[in-house]
Inverse folding.
């Protein structure tokens, strides 16, 4: 699919919160003025999407998006992020990010499990003791910032979900991608075929295409148990209402209460 990360989130939010007005911005773009905390405080919630940026690099784009995230924290507006969004919030609050080296999570993160703190946290409410989720990333959180809470992990990526509090703001984030469809997973596999082959996850282009075709077919026919079985997936990934649970929980437990409180004040 040719849809951007921002467009993906906007489409999902239109489904989860019909009638919500969304404003898409590109804080890493040096040609655009950054919104400050006063501007951001007028929003009900902020979503930080995936990104090709590597937060351990000192680039103008990285500095801008970190500055933006610090303004989000200072505004007090609830925020949510996936993949690079979690990494942005981590660095903005004083943590660190690193390359995964030879390791990869490509297509799906497997056997994610809530920590003791995560089992009782509303971000993961409704998730089972272990679950899979769409995931495509080559960087990861190396160290969470002071005061952050690790909510979920797996054997490949230690920080799969976290709550980060900084400067009066609260952020919920995940390393995986609850917002993307299986169609987008298939497109990501095809885009990253060279990397998958180089890292030994596929023997050749044919292997990547075979996997992507299965994922695409399951997107088009989510009730086909044979496809889900071949991919080792269950309703936690296949069913949209389960796959997008963290975004829904964020809206329910942080955005709507904050909006109600603002309306009363």
């Amino acid at each position: 699919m040719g849809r951007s990360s921002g467009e993906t989130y906007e489409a999902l939010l239109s489904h989860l919160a019909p009638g919500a007005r969304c404003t898409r911005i590109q804080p890493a773009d040096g040609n655009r003025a950054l919104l400050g905390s006063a501007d951001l405080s007028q929003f009900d919630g902020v979503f930080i999407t995936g990104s090709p940026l590597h937060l351990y690099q000192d680039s103008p784009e990285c500095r801008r998006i970190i500055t933006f995230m610090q303004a989000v924290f200072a505004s007090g507006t609830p925020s949510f992020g996936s993949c690079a969004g979690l990494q942005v919030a981590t660095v903005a609050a004083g943590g660190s990010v690193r390359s995964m080296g030879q390791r990869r999570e490509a297509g799906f993160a497997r056997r994610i499990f809530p920590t003791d703190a995560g089992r009782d946290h509303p971000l993961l409410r409704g998730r089972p003791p272990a679950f899979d989720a769409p995931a495509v990333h080559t960087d990861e959180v190396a160290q969470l910032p002071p005061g952050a809470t690790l909510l979920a992990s797996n054997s490949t990526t230690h920080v799969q979900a976290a709550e980060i509090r900084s400067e009066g703001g609260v952020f919920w984030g995940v390393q995986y991608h609850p917002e993307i469809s299986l169609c987008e997973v298939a497109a990501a596999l095809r885009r990253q075929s060279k990397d998958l082959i180089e890292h030994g996850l596929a023997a050749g282009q044919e292997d990547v295409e075979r996997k992507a075709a299965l994922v695409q077919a399951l997107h088009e026919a989510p009730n086909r148990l044979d496809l889900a079985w071949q991919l080792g997936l269950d309703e936690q990934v296949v069913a949209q209402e389960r796959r997008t649970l963290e975004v829904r929980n964020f809206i329910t437990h942080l955005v709507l209460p904050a909006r109600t409180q603002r309306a009363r004040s």
